[in-house]
Structure formats: C-alpha cells, structure tokens
Predict the structure.
Amino acid sequence: MKIRRTAVAMFVFLLAGAAHGAVTLVENGRATAVIVVGADASDQAREAARVLQEYIERISGARLEIQPDAAAAGARIVVGGKLAEGLLGIEGLSVLTPAMNEERFVLKTVGNDLVLAGNEHPFYRGVVYAAYELLERLGCRWFFPGAYGEVVPKRATLVVEDLDLDERPDFRFRNVWYSGWMPVDGTDGADLAAWLDRNKMTSLKDISLPGDGTVVRLAPPEKYFESHPHIYAVGKNGKRDKGMLCQTEPEAIKISAQTICDTFQANPGQFTFGFGPPDGHPMCYCGRCQKSNPQFSGNGYGEPSLSDVWFRFANAVAAEVYKVFPDRWVFTNGYANRVRPPEGVGPMSPNLGIQFAMLDTCTFHSIGDPKCWQRLAYKTILDRWTRDLGCVFIYDYDPGKALDGMPFPMLHNLSRDLPYFRDRGVWGFWTEGQNCWMVTHLNYYVRGRLMWDADSDVRAIVRDYCEKFYGNAADAVEDYVWTLEDAVDNCTIHETFGRLVPWRAIYDADTMQKLDALIEEAARRAGDGPEALHVRVLGLVYAYVRAYMAMEEAAAEGDFKGAVAQADEMLRVRAKIGQVDNSLIPVTPEWCNDGSGALEWHRTVYQRLAERIDGTRGNLVGLAPRVISFRKDPDDMGVLEQWYAGPLEAEWDTLDSTLYWEAQGLQDARGYGYTGNAWYRASFDVSSDVAGKPVMLTIGGIYSDTLWIWVNGFLVDQRQRQSTKAPFDVDVTAHVKPGEKNDVAILLETLTPDRNARGGLHRRVFLWSRK
C-alpha cells in the first residue's frame, strides 16, 4: 500500500520522550540504538547503513554503531537482508523481471526495531531509498546536489513514532541527466548521482536505450558493410550510409532481429535492446523506401514524416524477436521525423516500446492547454502512442528554452502533466537536464516527488522548501516562486529549446514591481546561518533577471551600449553566484557561446550593434522608430499595389519592431500565429553629412521564410529562409537620400504554422555609415 503524504506531513517525532510504540534512536545526544546489517548483507544494505550512521551523527552528534550481530540488545535499526525480511514477514525483495515494476521500499517499526527494507537487486535502490526516507522524516532535505542544496537539522533527541510504510513508485523510469550545454565535471556527476538516490530517482544506467545513431548496433558496419552493403540506407548522394539501415530491405530486418536475439541469449539479465537512427531527420533515399513513405508533413515535426517507414521496420524486427524472446523489450525512439504515430502499420508487436521525444513543442504550457495548440497536439499524439504500445516513456528537455540563464518556471506544468502521464500508463522519463540549478530551481526536485507519487501536493512541497531553506523569509520566497510560475503559466508566448524568449512580454511592469518587493522583503527577513546565504543567492538570481530585462529594454530603445553594460552586469552577478556554487547559474561552455541565446551571445550581438553606430565601425545615420507601421497582406497584393511607396492608408496598423508579432497578440485563441505576407514601413530623417559615404541598413533580427527590402521605393535586397536571431546588413548607399526623410519597407513571407511560428521583426532597424 502506498501512503499518500505531503512534504510537511511527517510521521517522526523529534521529542525529548518517546511515544507509545516508538523507537528512540538518540536521546540528549547519546546513541540509544544500533544499526544492524547481517554478515551476508548486500553492498546496497551496507551503503544504506553508512548513510544512516553519517546523517544521524550530523543531526544529533551521536554516532550509532553498525553491527553484524542480529542479537544486539536494545533498540535496533535493521537494514536490509534476510533479517529485515523475516521481521517484516515478507520475501522476494531482490527480484527483477522484464516488467521492471518490482521497485519497493518498506519502513516499519516492529517492537523495539525500526526495519528498513527494499528491493536489493542491483537494478533497484530500495534499501537506500528507505534510508533516505527515514532521514527526510528526521528533517533532512536535498533540494539541490552538493552542500549548498542540503538541509541537515540539529536535534539532540531522535524518536521515530510507530510507523508502517510500504511504497512503490508511480513511474518505473525516473531520471534526470546532464547533457553538455552547461559545464559538468567529475564532482558534479557524483553529486548528481547522490542527489538522485536521495530523491528516489534512477540513473537508468543498466537499460539499453535507443540513443541517436544506435541503429548501428543492429548491423555493425565493421561486420556487415563490405559483405551486405544493400542493408544500409541510401543517402541523398546515392551512396550507402554506414550509419543508417534501409528500412524496407528484408535482410536488414532479418539481421537486426538476429542481433537482438543473440544479445539476449548471451545476456539473460538484459531485458531491453534499444536502437534509434542518427540525430536529425534521417531518411533512406532508395526507391523502395521513398515509395513506401506517405510523405506526411506539417506542424514542424520533421518533414516529411519517416514514421510509417521507420515503425514498419521496427515493428517487423520486434515481431521476429518476440517469437524467440516474448518477455524482452525492443525499444526505439519517436523523435524528430518519427514523432507522428504511423498510419499504415498494423497492430504493434507487444514487445515494442518507444522513447517518445516530442521535443519540438512548446515548453511553457501544460498538456492539453487550450491556449497552446502545440500542447494540444502533444496530447493527441501521446494518447495514440500509449493506446497502441505497451511501453512508452518520455524524453524531454528541462530547461526547454534558450541558454540565457533566466529562471525556467515549470512547476505549473509538472503538477498537471505528471498525473496525466501516470494515468496514460507512461513508464517514466529520460530527462535531458542541465547543471544550472537556479535556472531549473525546483523543477528537478518536484519532478522527483511527482515521479514517485504523481498525486503529491506541489504547493506543500514548495512551502516545505521555503520554510526549510529560507527560514523567516519563507513567505516572501514562496510568493516569489508562484509569481514567476503564474506569469509563465498565463502567458501566450510559446517556447521551444534554443529559441529566444521574449521575457519582456511575460514579466510585465506590475509583475516586476511585485517581484522587487518580495525580494526586498526576503532580504529584510533573512536570519543568520545558511538561510541568510540562500536568501542572498536568490537575491542575486533576481538581480540577474533584473539586468536581463534592463538589457533587453535598452536594446529595444536602440541603446546598444547600454545593453552591453547590462550584459556585463549579468556576468558580474553570475560570477558572484559562482563564488557560492558554480552549478547555480554556470558559465556557458565556449562551444555554445555563439548561439542558442546564451548570455555571451547576447553580449556579442549588442556589442556588434553598438560598434556599428558608436564610431568603432561606423556612425548612426538614422534610427527607425521602435513602433512602426504594419500591415498584413494575405492576398499578396502589396507588391502589385506598391505598398512600399506612397502614403500610408487606413489599413496600416502599428507594431513594436522589437517583438515578433505573436508576442504582441497576433495569434488566435489556440496560439496559431498569423502566417502569410506582411509589411513593415518606417520613415526617418537622414542627415546631409552622409553624402558620398557608404550607408548600411541593419535589420536587427527577423523571423521570416523570405523577405524583400525597399529603400525609398527601390527594391534593394531579397533573401530566402532568413529567420534569424542575429542582425544582418544591406548596403543601401545608392538609394539613400541625405538630408531628407527616407522610407524603408520590408515585406515578409512568414513561416508556416508549425512549432516555430514566429513572424516579423524582433530588433531595431537603423541606417549607419560604415568607416
């Protein structure tokens, strides 16, 4: 039976005297119990005993002796093994089957004993979980990895009330791992592994997963390429590709199935075999594969879809394996051009499982959110996969945004989505995380709680965190957390990993004013000790947020030098946070400083814009207004009617040129943005002293499929697939009129309504004279 509980409802008394039936571990700083592990105890049981010994001593100052003697007198903490099973009247706690659902831990008082047990099979960590569960009930917390995120209370007396707890998780796979977007060293990896244990999460290190490019496991090219080149995919260049198989070649299916069967035969304890094609949008271009592909496209999930071809192949392989090993799993992934469920594949083999990775979808909103068509589509697709397959587990990103270092509130999504995943029978999660714990903040901690028990009260978890980590400042910090959450939850911005986030459209002036007051209140109430440090770090994180907002506002005003100054302030604040712990808002690795919206990338962009106009590379000639004229052109009549010239008619509206138009409300109730043709026009003065000098037009940033640019009625540039986060320049020397009003018109043919539906300008437009 699983006992449902909140983070603050504990069954441990930390009192001077024991309650009836309770077990006293420490009294007034003196050990009154011993820890017993059998002489034949597992390594896991011995590890759990050492964990208990260390933390009980840190809490109380008393060091409980670890004994192998089951007949030890007095109160005992019995950890794992046959002795624990005998006291509990249970057995079979070291079992692993292909169902992989035997995970369990038990925490129970039996007379004068406190018994900790759990599944001790090396695949599971049941006894270790029992130990950390007890320590939680004694007041310990591990909100983040390492010393900074740990809370260890001080208590002279430890008494455990009569207790009977038997728990199993709601999800089999409960993982967060570090990818390479943020720095990770050996200590970081070890700290994360310990943190996963302390929060009942798993590493999944013993499961064969369908990683990118693992399709070569099925037919290693060093073994088969020379003798069987026909089983490999045909590339666009007509040559065979060693990294991909032809999915319609019967011998490729036969060899793949045999490889998996041979692997299972040689490894009786291996219950899964995972394989996936290379990253990106792989495809076999042989005539047979192309003919069998229905070419479904749209919605931005890897066009054309490979799902029918790929899953027909994977299903055929799984079906052959099922004939020999009906109790083993064949895993593949539904990612990129394989997100859609197939339309022309029959019933799925019962041993086929999928790592569902619909990564190109909005990360700001919950599954089924009516204002977000991307999450509505996610629900529809997930429902189909969980209907048709016996094993579906999730690959997702957290943080699922640009690498800007800004906090990424996700608790509103997690609290709604995890119960839904549980109810759909999802097996669990393989979450690509980052070593940036004040960006993700409570996301991973709350994930852990909900992956174990999807009905956990998230608000109670947050309250517990605020009380234990911030002390007297708990109320202000709690309000701060939910203010950020509510702003993102209520916004109509849609975000996927790597895209720039228009935070100015999410945190409005009222929100920022409230956050200012809450951080000030938290600082006033901060006490002494670690709580004061935690409040100071949170204040620094908010200073980083404040500087980011000021940087973007300065850039929107055309003050690029001011934007650089704010970026430098963010670097200073980040360095101060790093003096406490480098993993809170870490330094971005050099290899990704030039993209994905990293802080360093922002600074570089604004520095280069500033240099165009501050005398370094050139001087400002004319700055287009921030709010400029705008007009939709759904019938494509603007060029024929010369909208780029002449007076503006009543049909023209205005938009802020520093935010793409969906961020200004140009979308429907479900979040579909306007698509088609649209125009921007701006007129501004150009001084006469630029006569005879080279003049450049800079477009600060634009989202568009194709664009055309007119200056004073002349078409000066045309570009394909120009959607860009970075500025670009056009030489307009021949068409500028010094000493007069100059007119710039930009026609965009916007992106189709897919997951990246963003249209229009998102930085200032200006003219400058190149030195």
